[in-house]
């Protein structure tokens, strides 16, 4: 029979289902459950480190002295301090009167209104600053374009407190800007503690984000679509508005929506550049927490969360209705930066880009350059290493209650490594789970991504009161150390980025690759190891870099949890210096910059070597 | 590849062409339905693939052929019905435990592995034949598909045809019981496709492996298969050897999908010869098609007044000859090399003929009653 060759080929085993040994069936069952087990562990970590602690805090807003009540909310909504003129609306005044007051010259916005206002301004500034960059990156070819494109991710992962130090060094009373103005014989400007400084700092963060998503969309516009429009009679401008713009516009909106949400929940930038005078909601939540006013802090955090989620939800609904899914088979050709002919149509856009490049270079390089410069400049303006010497002295002679540099560096690196190791498997498991097709997938996705939307202050507070102070379960008392809580908080903050870098790769994987491997005998879990992970490995490495960077730069939850003397990190150290002495803060900022940069190189190297393992 | 394989294949061929044996079919679908929401991609399909057979599912896109293949592979589970391998239900058995080899349209070679690693991947989960090392097995398979030196190459560096052959080698390496091919050649150009299908068929008969092949290309289906299932809207319309499907299509859909065809429909106006009971005598009936009475052979069930559809292949329509003759004018002609495919206009109907000589103007075209095939069960 023909079975002879095939039987031999399959090892001669009789594999009909009926005679398959029980052991093998059991093994198959277990293999099928491995992913389930990992998912359970991930959920457990999320519940313990996020849902439970956050839940306990939020409950305080609605349960006062053991009684459920909305009184805290009602009070909050009617307080003009928070809601400005809108509070009168909640208090029952006529909408007309409120509208008139809002249009009036001395309207009050309240903290929530101000937060939304500065977020809107920041969004406008970020889009205005991001779009020309997208135009440059998507439509022009020049040396270093790829590098510049990958650099757009950098501001996003820069420790925010370091950026704040950079901005203080640039725009402060003795900052670079005023030195330059002074040298030119112009009067100094004081941008510190102004709305402008906050908006510029937010643009620094978010314009690259806008540029990034817009560039990606622009690059996926199919050139033949534009060519078709041109051949049908549309001029270049018309073709742009009819074909390119509709495909790019949703990406701009994505960038804008994310920018709004990020800047609405902003904390370190405003704390450092605005102080409590220009407090946003998150800063005020922090202040309430410091004042031990937990109920009001929780209620305010819920309001913040609802507004952020509302914006995100509105955006997602829009996106679902207007999704343009065209994969550019052939992207638009890039133009040279050198004009081919000296006509206005060739010269004008390039001239515009040149002006933009100057402004952008100033905005993005000035803060970091100023920080480095300030760290080696003494009070008299001369070059000095005093600030670094101060750090060394502090390390040698500092008292136990004082912030010393080495423990900060050591803690930052240890927390970042540990939280990356925790965030990676969590992120990969969630990425696998959210790219499968099944009922309830969206719910899983939302539950897993929730940490992105919740105030870091509340996460920190929940962990502090829930885990660090201890929790009693069935007569046993569990308590985590501050360090452990920080690691967990960082992992929870970082793993959504692992999901976001890994999931698109998994989603884009050709399903027949997975099916081929399965038909060849690999179990579902084995396919993840042999096929899916190696192919999305660059995404995993990027995710690790993200998780590490998020942890190293994380300030919000850390500052709440690092109340003890020994769990502070570099960002916390910078914040403690910044209030008193800018010099050591900038020196510490430079140390943070160097450590972060080196870590990135290490992660890249490690990832590169183990690629395709 | 030793001579013993060749000998095996003769046996296998003998088996599959012979009378149905008592052995259960290699693959059997029993009332299988696959629904996605409200739509049934596969609708109550029952079919059996014999041991060693080259069985092809052919049909237009959306007919359910690929879903049927995926149900056999275990990538999908039926909504209702049962899939059996050699008489045993495989319900709940995951693809990795079904001992099937699958080749996809896009080949799905693992881009992060060399050609050799691709071919050897399945040997992680199944031992190579006794006395053969893993490397030998990989070399053997690459030899089989005529790529003996490709083991260290990167899949990206191969041409489409080479990738297709590597995918084939990879699927066969663990020695599957069943080979499933999902449009494995549709991404290749026509000439290469013809060469490769000869090779695929050769390998299949050498190994004698039961094969289910999915294609939308009816010509390919006729050329390569032992039996063909022509599918439409989630069900097979006809399951038969290629010759039967071509000569005796069971429905108007099959008649028109497989090859060029001229389909006529009309009312039976008179019945002649072979009166009731006389089974052997050829019995012709006159069918009124658009006012012209055409005579075709038909079985005794047909009586005057019935509606009847029949088809005549272009190669049986002859110029100026045949018992049934009609006048038509040349509408268009396509020069195909050996012959010219001419479309004629006969009172608003298209007739397709194949000729060697150029045609123009008005022509008389005819066919004999025995060259018409009455389509069963046509409700036209």
TrEMBL record, chain A:
Compartments, record wording: Cell inner membrane; Cell membrane
Transmembrane segments: 30-51, 115-138, 150-171, 191-211, 248-274, 294-316, 353-376, 413-434, 446-468, 474-498, 535-562, 582-603
InterPro entries (alphabetical): MetI-like (IPR000515), MetI-like_sf (IPR035906)
GO biological process: transmembrane transport
Gene Ontology cellular component annotations, sorted alphabetically: plasma membrane
Leader sequence segment: none
Entry-linked SUPFAM superfamilies: MetI-like (SSF161098)
UniProt entry keywords in alphabetical sequence: Cell inner membrane, Cell membrane, Membrane, Transmembrane, Transmembrane helix, Transport
PANTHER family documented for this protein: INNER MEMBRANE ABC TRANSPORTER PERMEASE PROTEIN YDCV
Name of protein: Sulfate ABC transporter permease
Organism of derivation: Halorubrum salipaludis
């Amino acid at each position: 029979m023909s079975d002879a060759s095939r039987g031999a080929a399959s090892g001669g085993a009789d594999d009909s289902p009926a005679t398959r040994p029980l052991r093998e069936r059991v093994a198959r069952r277990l293999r099928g459950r491995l992913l389930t087990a990992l998912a359970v562990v991930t959920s457990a970590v999320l519940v313990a480190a996020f849902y439970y602690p956050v839940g306990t805090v939020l409950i305080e807003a609605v349960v006062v002295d053991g009684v459920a009540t909305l009184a805290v909310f009602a009070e909050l909504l009617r307080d003009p301090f928070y809601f400005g003129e809108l509070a009168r609306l909640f208090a029952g005044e006529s909408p007309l009167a409120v509208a008139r007051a809002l249009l009036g010259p001395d309207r009050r916005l309240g903290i929530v209104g101000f937060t939304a206002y500065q977020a809107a301004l920041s969004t406008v500034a970020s889009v205005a600053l991001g779009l020309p960059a997208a135009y440059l990156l998507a439509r022009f070819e020049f040396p270093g374009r790829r590098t510049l494109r990958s650099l757009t991710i950098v501001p996003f992962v820069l420790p925010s407190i370091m950026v704040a130090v950079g901005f203080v060094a640039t725009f402060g009373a003795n900052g670079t800007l005023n030195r330059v103005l002074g040298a030119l014989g112009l009067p100094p400007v004081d941008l510190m503690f102004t709305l402008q400084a906050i908006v510029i700092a937010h643009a620094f963060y978010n314009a690259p984000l806008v540029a990034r998503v817009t560039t990606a969309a622009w690059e996926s516009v199919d050139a033949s679509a534009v060519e078709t429009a041109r051949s049908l009679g549309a001029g270049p401008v018309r073709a742009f508005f009819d074909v390119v713009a509709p495909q790019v516009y949703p990406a701009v909106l994505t960038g804008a929506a994310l920018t709004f949400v990020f800047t609405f929940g902003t904390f370190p930038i405003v704390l450092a550049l605005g102080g409590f005078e220009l407090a946003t909601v998150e800063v005020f939540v922090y202040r309430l927490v410091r004042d031990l006013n937990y109920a009001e802090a929780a209620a305010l955090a819920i309001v913040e969360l609802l507004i952020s989620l509302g914006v995100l939800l509105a955006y997602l609904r829009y996106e679902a209705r207007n999704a343009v899914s065209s994969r550019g088979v052939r992207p638009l050709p890039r133009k040279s930066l050198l004009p081919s002919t000296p006509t206005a149509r060739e010269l004008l856009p390039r001239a515009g880009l040149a002006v933009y490049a100057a402004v952008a270079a100033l905005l993005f390089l000035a803060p970091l350059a100023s920080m480095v410069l300030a760290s080696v400049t003494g009070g008299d303006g001369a070059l000095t290493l005093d600030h670094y010497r101060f750090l060394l002295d502090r390390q040698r002679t500092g008292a136990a209650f004082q912030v010393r540099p080495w423990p900060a560096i050591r803690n930052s690196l240890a927390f970042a490594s540990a939280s990356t190791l925790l965030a990676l498997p969590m992120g990969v498991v969630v990425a696998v789970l959210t790219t499968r097709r099944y009922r309830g997938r969206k719910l899983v996705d939302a539950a897993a991504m929730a940490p992105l939307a919740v105030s870091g202050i509340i996460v920190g507070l929940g962990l502090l009161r829930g885990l660090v102070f201890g929790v009693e379960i069935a007569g046993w008392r569990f308590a985590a150390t501050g360090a452990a809580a920080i690691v967990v908080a960082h992992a929870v903050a970082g793993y959504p980025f692992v999901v976001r870098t890994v999931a698109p790769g998994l989603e884009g994987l050709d399903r027949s690759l997975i099916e081929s491997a399965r038909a060849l005998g690999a179990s579902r879990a084995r396919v993840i190891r042999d096929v899916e992970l190696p192919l999305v490995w660059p995404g995993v490495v990027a995710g690790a870099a993200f998780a590490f960077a998020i942890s190293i730069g994380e300030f919000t939850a850390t500052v709440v949890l690092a109340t003890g003397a020994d769990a502070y990190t570099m960002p916390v150290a910078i914040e403690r210096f910044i209030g008193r002495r800018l010099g050591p803060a900038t020196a510490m900022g430079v140390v943070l910059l160097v450590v972060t940069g080196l870590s990135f190189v290490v992660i890249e190297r490690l990832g590169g070597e183990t690629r395709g393992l | 590849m030793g001579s013993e394989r060749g000998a095996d294949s003769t046996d296998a061929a003998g088996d599959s062409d012979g009378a149905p044996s008592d052995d259960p079919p290699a693959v059997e679908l029993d009332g299988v339905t696959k629904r996605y929401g409200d739509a049934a991609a596969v609708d109550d399909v029952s079919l059996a693939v014999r041991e060693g057979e080259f069985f092809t599912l052919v049909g237009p896109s959306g007919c359910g052929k690929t879903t049927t293949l995926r149900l056999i592979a275990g990538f999908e589970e039926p909504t209702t019905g049962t899939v059996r391998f050699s008489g045993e239900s495989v319900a709940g058995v995951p693809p990795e435990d079904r001992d099937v080899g699958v080749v996809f349209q896009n080949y799905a070679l693992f881009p992060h592995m060399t050609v050799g690693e691709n071919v050897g991947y399945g040997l992680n989960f199944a031992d190579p034949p006794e006395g053969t090392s893993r490397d030998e097995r990989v070399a053997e398979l690459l030899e089989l598909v005529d790529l003996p030196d490709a083991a260290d190459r990167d899949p990206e560096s191969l041409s489409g045809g080479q990738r297709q052959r590597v995918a084939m080698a990879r699927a066969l390496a663990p020695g599957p019981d069943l080979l499933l091919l999902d449009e494995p050649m549709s991404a290749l150009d026509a000439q290469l496709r013809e060469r490769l299908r000869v090779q695929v068929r050769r390998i299949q008969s050498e190994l004698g492996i039961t094969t289910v092949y999915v294609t939308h290309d009816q010509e390919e289906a006729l050329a390569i298969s032992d039996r063909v299932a022509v599918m439409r809207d989630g069900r097979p319309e006809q399951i038969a050897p290629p010759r039967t499907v071509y000569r005796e299509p069971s429905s108007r859909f099959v008649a028109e999908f497989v090859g060029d065809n001229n389909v006529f429909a009309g009312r039976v106006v008179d019945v002649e010869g072979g009166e009731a009971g006389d089974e052997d005598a050829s019995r012709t009936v006159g069918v009124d098609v658009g006012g012209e009475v055409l005579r075709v052979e038909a079985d005794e069930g047909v009586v005057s007044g019935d509606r009847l559809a029949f088809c005549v292949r272009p190669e049986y329509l002859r110029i100026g000859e045949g018992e049934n003759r009609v006048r038509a004018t040349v509408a268009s002609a396509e020069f195909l090399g050996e012959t010219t495919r001419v479309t004629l206009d006969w009172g608003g109907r298209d007739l397709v003929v194949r000729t060697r000589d150029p045609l123009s103007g008005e022509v008389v075209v005819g066919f004999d009653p025995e060259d018409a095939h009455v389509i069963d069960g046509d409700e036209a």
